[in-house]
Hints:
This protein has 12 helices and 5 strands. By secondary structure, the protein is α/β, with parallel strands linked by helices. The protein starts with 19 loop residues before the first helix and ends with a helix.
Amino acid sequence: MLTNTESLDARFADIDIWPLESAVEAMLEGQMAALTSLKSQTGAIALAATAAAERLTRGGRLAYAGAGTSGRVAAQDGVELGPTFGWPPERMVYFIAGGMAALSQSVEGAEDDAATARAAVIAAGLGPDDVLIGVAASGRTPFTVAALDAARAAGALTISLANNAATPLLLAADHPILAETGSEVIAGSTRMQAGTAQKAVLNMLSTAIMLRLGRVYRGQMVDMIISNAKLQKRAQIMVRDLAACSEAVAITSLEAAQNNIRLAILIALGRTRANAEALLAAQNGDLRAALNQEKSCPD
């Protein structure tokens, strides 16, 4: 039985002979409709992010599970959390059907291998402090459903994202998120509308988690990894503006903090590195909380 994302939309049955600009316009309309479909899910995303942040505050890991396009979209979201929010690689786990090699090439039949998914989750030792996000356009991919089932049985928080309602993946999770994008412009090509909606949901979900974990301050990425000259300059400006100090002080503070932006801001405000580290540690790394604590308990 075909799901909504796999069925043919009669409006596009002859798209292969349309003028190409008209075909592209139809694709764009599909992408826009995919994003519109998410309006009803903002509450669900916020609830999932709040629950996830609570687990991760206890030191847990963030994991992603998926197959094919959905697995690649999920993995991309996870990979970007390191440079953007300083999320440690040792607190990231991936369960991708066919293994990580499947991110760059198709591994046939891997999405049906539920036993491998269950074994991988057990081997990773997921537990009550961990969070697993499972993504599948159809909502019924055996690999992803099995990963979610195994994680939930181990006590991990489970979040699912699917593009079809009332499917096993949504029923298997503590926090289901439905991106109901319907038929694709090209039947079954879920890299189109479904993939766009998945990417948008994951962007919002993971960013909301990082907001709740205090890895954003005043709308800025105060935990980003400084990996090039452009980001070094951005960090200097960030420290200068957030600490209301001179550029020279911002530069020396970043040097003293070994490019840890949160530490550099506290150092620029007059803290020693040791004091800044202790202050952040007491607040689970939350810069805003650390700054509030500093105001209420001056040296």
